[in-house]
Amino acid sequence: MGPQNGDDGVARCPWSGGPGVMRDYHDREWGRPVSGESAYLERLTLEAFQSGLSWSTILNKREAFRELFHGFDAEAIAAFGDDDVARLMQDSRIVRNRMKIDATLVNARATVALREQQGLEAFVLSFAPADPPAWHDTAEMATTSAESVALSKALKKRGFAFVGPTTMYALMEAIGIFDPHLVGCFRRGLS
């Protein structure tokens, strides 16, 4: 399926739907570059929490994630202990999955350790594809790439968790490492 005209007559990627959180995310954020360690850690964390769930669920809980994970400050999260994990597991405003919460703490600690090298942002950006895709419809779209597989392996080697190739591909799309919008979508080429 190619881009679809919305009720406003604007052609968008078909998953963006009608007015609401998904369309707002598509129009204002998805595929746009972000900068800074906390922005990268946030996107990496949210993509991990989304695994097995709808993206709209995560978007609707995003502000609570930001609050409870201290704006995705790596040092603050890295200092979390058992009491913090117990508190997070009781807070229904976020996804209460112990493995994903534990992975967030592990990833914050790995992010702090990665500062000794180039840092999380530069590290992730170093896996940008040399030949970015340009899909015309959703049937052509991939869920992994050689780059997302390599990024996944490299992050795991540096101690990160819940960073599989599909999750890393979604991260690459979300943060604009390449333009993920379909050819014909009004956002294509604007990132």
TrEMBL record:
This is DNA-3-methyladenine glycosylase I. Its EC number is 3.2.2.20. Signal peptide: none annotated. One of its GO terms (molecular function) is metal ion binding. It comes from Nocardioides soli. Keywords: Glycosidase, Hydrolase, Metal-binding, Zinc. It is an enzyme of class 3 (hydrolase). GO terms for biological process: base-excision repair. Zn(2+) binds at residues 13, 26, 181, 185.
